Amino acid sequence: MPVEKVLIIVDDIALPLGTLRMKSAGGDGGHNGLINIIETLGTNNFPRLRFGTGNDFAKGRQIEYVLGKWSEKEEKLLIPHIKQSVKMIKSFGTIGIDRTMAIFNNK
């Protein structure tokens, strides 16, 4: 399968909680998962959907924050964004990256 047909979905502490961004290519932004994917594929030219988790954690507590359980407040905030991300994923699969970015990235 061509790499441009694969959508990589990552959590991203650099984006506010619930923020969704789709990109057709880009760097790793210090994200360990993206670093590994870029090294494995030998390219950074692949589509990705970044799902913002925010960075509301104490120093040295990133892992607990990202992998921990959501609070009730966070869960209520995230459910609509999860539904939106599903729409974005379906759109990517049906109409492609460029049209999906045009539709969803500015919302």
What does this entry look like structurally?
With 107 residues, this protein is α+β, with helices and mostly antiparallel strands. 45% of the residues lie in helices and 13% in strands. The protein contains 4 helices and 3 strands. The protein has helices at 32-41, 62-67, 72-95, 97-104; strands at 8-12, 20-23, 48-52. The chain has a 3-stranded mixed beta sheet with strand order 1-3-2. Helix 3 (72-95) runs antiparallel to helix 4 (97-104). 13% of the residues are buried.
In total, the number of domains comes to 1
Number of strands: 3
CATH architecture: 3-Layer(aba) Sandwich
Structural class: alpha+beta
- The name of the CATH topology is Rossmann fold
User: Mind telling me the CATH class?
Assistant: Alpha Beta
**Order of secondary-structure elements:** EEHEHHH
Q: Describe the sheet with the most strands.
A: 3 strands, mixed
Radius of gyration: 14 Å
Helix residue percentage = 40-55%
* Cα shape: globular
Spatial strand sequence of the major β-sheet: 1-3-2
